[in-house]
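Reminder to self: tokens first, then the designed residues, so the page reads top to bottom the way the pipeline ran.
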């Protein structure tokens, strides 16, 4: 997506919840989302569904995106994930099991893997990213994370599980 088409002021206003800015952001991002979905999905119907779902996810989560620079990578990861989900739903893409996922990751060079892991963290919605960073990078306990975020242990566990699943999916594509 062309980040140049989205001004920092528009992005910040949308991130802070301005309805007009959100509508303008969606309108500006839509052509690039659709173009990427058409290039990524297996059919034009799936591309349309993936684009619409991506716009809906952007609408719901625009406030969680940290920076304009992260927006493009985040949107493209959402589109890829939606195309893959639709292909799996249609039985066109097999689910990757744990051993295959591990083999894919081990085949990468360490420097490339570091970059990919950083991108995977950046692509996570902030509420998942925060929990994953606290647990997997800062090595905080579940109780410490729950206290720091003022949520329950169950919420921390659920977010951590979802964050790891999203990262695994991102890294094994």
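Designed residues (173 positions):
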């Amino acid at each position: 997506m062309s980040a140049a088409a989205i001004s920092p002021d528009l992005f910040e206003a949308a991130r802070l919840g301005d309805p007009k800015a959100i509508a303008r952001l969606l309108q500006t991002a839509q052509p690039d989302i659709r173009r990427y979905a058409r290039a990524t999905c297996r059919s034009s119907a799936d591309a349309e569904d993936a684009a619409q779902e991506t716009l809906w996810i952007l609408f719901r989560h625009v406030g969680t995106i940290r920076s304009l620079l992260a927006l493009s990578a985040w949107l493209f990861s959402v589109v890829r994930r939606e195309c893959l989900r639709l292909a799996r739903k249609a039985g066109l893409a097999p689910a990757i099991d744990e051993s295959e996922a591990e083999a894919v990751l081990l085949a990468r060079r360490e420097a490339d893997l570091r970059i990919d892991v950083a991108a995977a963290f950046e692509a996570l919605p902030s509420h998942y990213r925060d929990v994953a960073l606290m647990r997997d990078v800062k090595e905080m306990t579940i109780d410490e994370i729950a206290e720091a975020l003022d949520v329950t242990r169950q919420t921390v566990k659920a977010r951590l599980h979802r964050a790891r699943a999203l990262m695994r999916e991102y890294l094994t594509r």
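The mean pLDDT is 83.
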